[in-house]
Design goal:
Largest sheet: 11 strands, mixed
Helix content: 10-25%
Number of strands: 43
Length: 967
């Protein structure tokens, strides 16, 4: 049974796609496991399970390569046979499967060779055609056989519990669509082995390592971190006592919160949001195990040689726990495949960023994630391939060489007798770069010894424009800028390196008595660095007094680095509070503020836009002419208390002019400044707020006015949302985020510029235009009305009931919370047990879903969404005038008849929210020729003016009439 979801959920509702059936192999009630589809590659040299489903108590026969195996289905209809070990073959074969119910299936073009699982997030998913792996693309064999093939489950992506029944497709050619890492890995195997290679691709973007780990992988972890994840797994298994206790507690917390709200309302106080952390692994459908359940479980127990892993971006901030997660991942894969010796080879994280790397020592985060990866080599039958000498954005281009480094491990360990194209045997391959073993201090020298440095160390660098194949630099030691030394004061200083065979001798004139050494913990990328004779890069390391340096054991963070001021501190409160929306949208560099009236400057105090303050602090405020002091300065201190949501300071009325003002606001916790905003170039003049539909405007040539005319427009992609964006149009509230709205010179193009220059020409004052335009079609007037005010328009009664169910003040809020509880109870009592019992998705959905907070009122509404994003962060506002430009979607069909009352509500809602009862509200009113049956507003509080329009295009003439109406 599918629980209905509404887009009004207070928690995320995951909408799933319709089932993808491409590649599904079934006939009547006979069905094959997902990987058994045309163009499959079967594993040579070991038993090959073949499985599927039919009617219970059916007889099933499987024939392939002169073998015929028979079996019966169990009570659930599941069957499985084991083919005897097969010999690699380029001859395509057919696999015939039939049952005694008259059903039969033939899988065509099946080869036998080597099969590997390739898993991870988007850097494993990224296609050949967009990377250097395209330079390895093979021609088809002369006999037309495609030597490398790739399979991926397509009907299921992510589910809460493991799914067996799924379907997918084997790619057979068009290599540019394959996984770039997996293809380059398979290509190197193919070159050495000359057998078909099959890839089982289990990868997807924006996924963590936990998402690809089977539940059982967490079970046996002895550390506290892993056991905490296992407890979450138990909380989403309805058969466990942990589940019952957690969800009873959760429901009870929600009911208590509702009861508290009833008491608050009875006492005349504001109702509060009802929220509580959901138990279990329900932080969206990319949470722990979800991706494994959908994309890998349907492959088990397909015969394969081993697995490769490339991932890390989603776990960058989690540091050393990557060690625990790799153990859980590999332990889990081996348990579900019943292969305790399953080889798994993994990449150590690359050097992210397209800019010049800060090549200084670092701890925590990425550095310790790389360290955790290195330490996970203690897992038997694994190996690590470094890609520290590769640099790029989220999806780096040079994937071929790192993938080939993974293949070195596979060739040496799984195919030791293979003869490589250069005549060597695979068993003789060097597969690891130099790895720190120990160091000794002799005077001012730190002498470092390494494993895997046979043949001596050398200096090389990779080329960002090519394959990233390292090229040796003769006498290159002076170019290496990756070593640092620290003495007793624990300050890290740049150091020089001298190569002495297999050892590195490191010195720094600033550190005569060294105690600590660091190499490349901040990354390497394209910079010169150390390699062994096999041209494999050295792995980063950091030690002090013979102990590993970790964030948790270093006494003073951030690390003290000589002559280096970090751009971003990733430690302490400054990093924790980096997303405080300390100033709301309007208060930015070069702002124009309204003259002649008091102006409220305000912002948030929570660690992000959605939360109140969680500890006490202090806001310091200073406003003055740039360079001004004495009586010109306005200074305030605002205490921040726990639970406080925002702060404000009201400026007195200021005269219009070009004098630039400075605004300095800081947030202190204790004596520490956790965020500071220093705004310059503020002037006072006339400010107008303008809303416009998604349309092209032809305002003609714009005559620039003398003086200051500035415009603020939406730069973020979104123009509406179900939640109120109180302090920022953009999702991000970090001060320098690239989607934040900014004040810019108006220029000479567009409606905002035309309006601003005409107004400035009339007044002679600086002018600011806040121009908020929808980029979506189908926007209604109701989109621009605050949720609480929808109730004032009879035509919006249903919208009000639907939308208000999201908010504690809404009449249906408590009922919606109780419906949410009921939906979860149905989810746990019906949907999930059916999924567990059948090992299939009950509703056939691709993406798994989680019950969401939904309105108990039937229907769907987009009301209030434009206001939430493009209006709420400007209120209260000090403006000279308000302008609403009507578009076709506002008056089409039945909306024309409701236009009058809804525009009245919109105008009054704006006035109330901005706190502006006396400024003109100007709106464009379509003639009847544009909107048959349109009604005129009769309830807008004065002053308001309409501007009649006979065409939808905004012209120069219309701008003149709006300017006149605003006077």
């Amino acid at each position: 049974m599918r629980i209905l979801m509404a887009i009004l959920g207070l928690s995320i509702a995951w909408v799933h796609a319709l089932p993808v059936t491409a590649g599904e192999v079934m006939e009547g009630t006979l069905r094959l496991g997902a990987p058994f589809a045309d163009h499959a590659v079967l594993q040579q040299g070991m038993q090959v399970p073949v499985w599927g489903w039919s009617e219970p108590r059916s007889r099933v026969s499987v024939s392939f390569a002169n073998q015929r195996k028979r079996t019966r289905t169990n009570a659930d209809g599941k069957w499985m046979v084991q083919l005897d070990p097969l010999t690699a073959s380029w001859t395509p074969g057919d696999m015939d499967v039939s049952d005694n119910r008259g059903n039969s299936i033939t899988v065509h073009d099946v080869l036998v060779g080597e099969v590997w699982l390739a898993s991870g997030q988007s850097n494993m998913q990224w296609p050949v055609g967009r990377t250097t792996s395209r330079d390895l693309v093979l021609e088809d064999r002369e006999d037309g056989i495609i030597p490398i093939r790739e399979f991926q489950v397509s009907s299921v992506t992510a589910q809460l519990h493991p799914i067996d029944k799924a379907s997918g497709v084997w790619k057979n050619g068009n290599y540019n669509d394959y996984s770039a890492v997996a293809y380059a890995f398979a290509h190197k195997l193919y070159e050495a082995l000359d057998v078909p290679v099959g890839i089982l691709n289990g990868s997807f973007s924006e996924t963590s390592i936990q998402a690809w780990t089977p539940r059982i992988g967490f079970r046996d972890g002895e550390d506290e971190y892993t056991q905490s994840i296992w407890q979450r797994m138990l909380e989403t298994d309805p058969s466990t006592s942990e589940h019952a206790a957690a969800w009873e507690r959760y429901y009870r917390e929600l009911e208590h919160a509702l009861a508290d709200n009833e008491e608050r309302i009875a006492a005349g106080r504001e109702a509060l949001e009802v929220s509580s952390d959901r138990p279990g692994n329900l932080n969206g459908n990319r949470d722990a195990s979800w991706m494994f359940n959908g994309r890998i479980q349907p492959l088990i127990p397909y015969a394969l040689r081993g697995a490769i892993w490339n991932q890390g971006y989603a776990n960058m901030g989690q540091g050393i726990t990557y060690y625990n997660n790799l153990h859980s991942l590999i332990r889990g894969w081996r348990l579900v495949w019943q292969r305790p010796d399953l080889p798994v080879y993994f990449h150590q994280f690359y050097s992210p960023g397209n800019h010049q790397l800060a090549l200084v020592p670092t701890v925590g985060g990425v550095a310790e994630m790389r360290l955790g990866t290195l330490l996970a080599r203690d897992i038997p039958y694994t190996g690590m391939a470094s890609q520290i000498d590769v640099q790029g954005a989220i999806h780096y281009n040079q994937k071929a060489v790192p993938a080939q480094r993974l293949a070195l491990h596979a060739l040496r360990n799984q195919y030791p007798d293979a003869v490589l194209p250069d005549g060597r045997q695979a068993v003789d391959l060097v597969v690891n770069g130099p790895i720190f073993r120990s160091y000794e201090v002799h005077g001012n020298e730190v002498i470092v010894s390494f494993d895997y440095a046979e043949g001596g160390l050398l200096v090389a660098t990779t080329d960002r424009r090519g394959m990233a194949t390292p090229e040796m630099i003769e006498n290159g030691e002076p170019e290496v800028r990756l070593f640092y030394l620290a003495g007793e004061d624990r300050v890290w200083h740049p150091a020089e390196v001298e190569i002495r065979g297999e050892q590195a001798v490191v010195t720094s004139a600033a550190v005569p008595d060294p105690r600590g050494i660091s190499y490349a913990t901040g990354g390497v990328g394209w910079n010169p660095n150390l390699y062994n004779s096999a041209m494999l890069p050295m792995t980063p390391f950091m030690y002090y007094d013979q102990e590993l340096v970790l964030e948790k054991n270093w006494p003073d963070l951030p690390l003290q680095i000589a002559n280096y001021e970090p751009e971003t501190d990733r430690h302490g409160r400054e990093f924790e509070y980096r997303r405080i929306p300390l100033l709301s949208t309007q208060f930015r560099e070069n702002a124009v503020l309204q003259s002649g009236v008091p102006v409220k400057i305000f912002g948030g105090v929570g660690v992000d836009s959605w939360t109140p303050a969680h500890e006490e602090g202090l806001i310091t405020f200073r406003f003055a002419p740039e360079g001004g002091n004495g009586n010109d300065v306005i200074e305030r201190e605002i205490p921040v208390t726990v639970g406080m949501e925002e702060w404000y300071v009201e400026l007195p009325a200021m005269e219009a002019g070009t004098t630039p003002y400075a605004l300095d606001v800081a947030f202190l916790v204790g004596d520490e400044v956790v965020q500071e905003r220093n705004i310059r170039g503020i002037v006072f003049g006339d400010v107008y707020y303008v809303a416009a539909p998604n349309a092209r405007f032809g305002v003609g040539e714009i005559a620039p006015a003398e003086g200051i005319v500035r415009v603020m427009e939406r730069r973020a992609g979104r123009d509406g949302h179900v939640d109120v964006s109180r302090f920022s149009i953009a999702v991000s509230t970090q001060p320098l985020n690239r989607f934040a709205a900014t004040w810019e010179d108006a220029g000479t193009e567009g409606v905002a510029a035309a309006l601003g220059h005409r107004l400035a020409a009339k007044s002679g004052n600086p002018v600011g235009v806040i121009f908020m335009q929808n980029n979506s079609d189908g926007i209604r007037l109701s989109n621009w009305i605050r949720a609480q005010d929808l109730q004032h328009a009879p035509s919006l009664e249903q919208d009000y009931l639907i939308v208000s169910a999201r908010y504690p003040w809404g009449p249906k809020y408590a009922e919606s919370v109780r419906q949410y509880i009921a939906d979860f109870k149905t989810f746990w009592s019906q949907f999930v047990p059916e999924m567990i019992a059948t090992r299939a998705v009950p509703d056939g959905g691709n993406w798994g879903w989680i019950p969401s907070r939904r309105s108990v009122v039937e229907g769907h509404s987009m009301a209030a969404r434009s206001w939430n994003v493009m209006g709420a962060s400007f209120a209260p506002g000090a403006f000279k005038g308000l302008v609403f430009l009507t578009g076709p979607s506002h008056v089409e069909g039945e909306y024309a008849a409701n236009y009058g009352t809804e525009m009245s509500v919109l105008a009054n809602s704006w006035r109330d929210q901005f706190g502006l009862q006396e400024v003109p509200f100007v709106y464009s009113l379509p003639e009847a020729s544009l909107a048959a049956g349109i009604t005129k507003p009769a309830g807008i509080q004065a002053p308001s003016k309409l501007v009649q329009i006979s065409e939808w295009n905004v012209t120069s003439g219309l701008i003149d009439r709006i300017v006149a109406a605003l006077e």
